[in-house]
Amino acid sequence: MSQVHYLTTPLSDEDVENLKAGDIVYLSGTIFTARDAAHKRLVDLIENKEELPFQLDGAVIYFVGPTPPKPGDPIGSAGPTTSYRMDSYSPTLIKHGLKGMIGKGKRNQDVKEACKKYKAVYFGATGGAGALLGKLIKEAKVIAYEELGPEAIRMLRVENFPVTVINDAYGNDLYEEGRKQYEVKD
Amino acid sequence: MREIAYEDIVKAVKNMVIHTATNLPEDAMKKLQEAHEKEKSPVAKKVLEQLLENAEIARTEKRPLCQDTGLAVYFVKVGQDVKITGGLLKDAINEGTEQGYIEGYLRASTCDCFTRENLKEKIGYNLPAVIHIDLVEGDKIEIEYAAKGGGSENVSRARVLAPAQGREGVIDFVKDVISEAGPNPCPPIIVGVGIGGTFEKAAISSKYALFREAGQPNPDPDVAEFEKELLFELNKLGIGAMGMGGTETVLAVHVEKNPCHIASLPVSVNVQCHSSRHSHITL
Q: ipTM of this predicted complex?
């Protein structure tokens, strides 16, 4: 049965161990945004043993490229982007301390293995709910790669940001299990 | 000849672009509500609830429904008794698009294919728009518009089947495409299927099929029957809202069928996410 958790970042190994695919989590605290281009730069920094623009240990990365904020708002609409484009980078970040990723859509086997081996989770947020999710972001600040525009790395402060555990640290996958439950075989 | 001013086209397109980004059209809204009522999975039902709430927030607070505010796609029918004064039709549509995306605080999402450099400085903010123009009778211009997101385009596919594969072959192909897409195109989706014509005719037909009001059947009763059959088959996949498992994966299937070459059976599947942002104006 699906459980509901309220968690504050950074996430610990214990936080991750308590999560199962299908659980609903309300996240609060600081999370970081990054898409393809920013991921490539982060992995390059790790390979060159250089300092990262934020502390990766226990961190949660949100795959998002928001719309520009209206005057007075911290951020525009900000729902998840499709995650597979980050598949080639995520395992390296997980190995170096990343505990959570928020996106939408399937991840590959390497990412799922890394989640098991180093205790991390992949959360799904509701794609296309950008107006609703953007409102739950209380602060946003570009902390690196401003020249990438919507793809820059932002530090976000979120309150009760709703996500669902898709891939847990035990190898479970909600996309596969949920679909099996409702599939009608001929 | 009836004259339509360039500036009037720019203004009408701009207003349409801004409005469409924050207002989910009635047909899509109705389909989402129906899906919410019918859905058997509590997890998927919760997702559909969020989508309805999202549409309400977007409309009342004028926030874009989705951060992927899309590439601007237009199907334009120009009456042959119309004269456009003061500039070119394509330029007017592009200019209206750019103004709408800037003034509506929408995202600039066009980039170079290989360098991935955003083209907002070099070409224009979220330009160029994708514009299909047709010349028709009359003295009006009808502009149909969709803000087309990337996630659902990424799973769209086209293939030329062998004629012997026939109707069953088309069903299998559409099922394979939607099954493989799974959670990625933001289900519940609308599926546009273009059958026949040439390779590109099938692809454009599948796109145009998505411009139809959601759930509106094809006027040809045989094609309408085929749409029903596909809808039934696709909802057996169990993908559900955002792929978390459920009974409501596809909100509608729209098929456009064209005569084709004796040697071919082209078929194209274009997917529309649940945020089916489209609109039309007549000038």
A: 0.92
